[in-house]
Amino acid sequence: MSVAKSSKTPALQVIRWSHRRLIVLTGAFMLIAINPFLNYFLQIDFVQGWYQSLGIGSLWFVSPLEGLESLLITKSVYMPALVGMLIPVILAFLLGRVFCSWLCPVSFLLELLDRLRRAITRRRHLHNKLVVAKRLLWFTLIAEFLLSMILGAPLFVFLSPPGLVGREIMMAVFFHKLALEGVVLLVVIVLEFVTRRMFCRTFCPLGGLLALIGSHRRLVVQLDREACTHCGLCNRSCPMGLQPEENEAKTAYCWNCGECLESCQDNVLAFTWRKNGSG
Amino acid sequence: MKRRFFLQLLATGLSGLAFSPRKTGAAILKSPIGTNRLRPPGAVPEELFPGKCIRCGRCVEVCPYRSIIMLDIRYGIHAGTPFIEAENVPCYLCMKCVDVCPTGSLQRIRQPETRMGLAIINTFTCLAYEGITLCRTCYDKCPFVEKAIRLEQLKPVIDEQHCTGCGICTNACPVTTADGKKAVNIEPIYASDKVTP
């Protein structure tokens, strides 16, 4: 360990990003986990839906990819859908893929799985058995749109793991059965044992779209090159398989989860708000 | 796992799809809409519906009567779309689902102008037409009294001008034939409207 070299701030002041993130993830998951019960048993329909489209009162959110698919396939514009996409798109434009790391229910499940594995095996990070080129994310996005346009039906709307979590919970509460397409979730979880966040980093079209929107985001993880001791802890901590040590966290693939910030012993990584999209 | 092996696995899976039995292809695209199987009120024609609907399930969650159910992957590309089985729970036209639809798959429409389908009486099984009893259950239950269903010589008659296809008559009908249908059934004739030339 290279802690011996004195860091600027004491280790006590390191912000526990992973704790904060887990709290936000849990809250976001609880929202869609409790809501079907409120709807079904108490007939409180103030909140409806899940992360495909969430309605809180008259504040509507529409997932950008699903909205875009619907728009492209029917070639018609519907204002409420566009307005609902506005907040998620602005969020992605400024902060990048934060939906994926801070809100997505699949991310919550995988995070739990991570913690469970850590508790059982004591090994901090799973060895990545298969590392696929990061660029595959863009191919996934393109393939998804092409396939949907060819079939003339949106595919991601009923096969999206983030949406499937909500749908399975709702199906279980409302109809006391699970939908068969939930196996997609199982596949995502199995892939997690091959490589950390295998699905998220390469096969999630929604993640691809959000990464594309946020490729010139304002919030980035900035590396202080002079102070970095190249200990490699951040590289190992990154769930997306990036190398913050090489300043790779500024690329489009980073989802601003803050794991590398927490792992850094020398505090050379920090969230910074850059003034313009480049630099 | 070797990268090559993984890619081979992926390619095998994809080519396996192409060799799947021919019936699968038709079943994936086939619409589940049919007799007594309806879309919620204000739905766009079936040609557009699976493309427009983003399967967010908000209509299912707000429906106070639990009329709307959700399809799963066995219905192919229609997985996750809302669906009403009229003989089980009909639509009571409260229009709450229409108010929450974020994509315009369900469009706002006044109650009397809703056209989910058209009720059609099977005169071979209807008790009133067969002369078995003086049944007028559908006439009594219809929310558009003396408009959508009238009695002519003590037999119910449907008026196309007023029937919304809500399915309340189907739900109430005491006759159930061997194929699970009722003596009055809703045919979603408006769902097959063409939108593209």
Automatic annotation (TrEMBL), chain A:
GO MF annotation: an example: metal ion binding
Full protein name: Ferredoxin-type protein NapH
Protein species of origin: Desulfopila aestuarii DSM 18488
Domain of life: Bacteria
GO cellular component terms listed in the entry, alphabetical order: plasma membrane
Annotated keywords: 4Fe-4S, Electron transport, Iron, Iron-sulfur, Membrane, Metal-binding, Transmembrane, Transmembrane helix, Transport
Record field: transmembrane: 21-42, 81-114, 135-157, 169-191
Span of domain 4Fe-4S ferredoxin-type: 219-248
Keyword Electron transport part of the UniProt annotation: yes
Pfam families given in the database record: Fer4_5, Fer4_9
From TrEMBL, chain B:
UniProt GO MF annotations: 4 iron, 4 sulfur cluster binding; metal ion binding
Keywords: 4Fe-4S, Iron, Iron-sulfur, Metal-binding
4Fe-4S ferredoxin-type domain boundaries: 44-73, 80-111, 154-183
Domain of life: Bacteria
Pfam family, one: Fer4_7
Name of this protein: Ferredoxin-type protein NapG
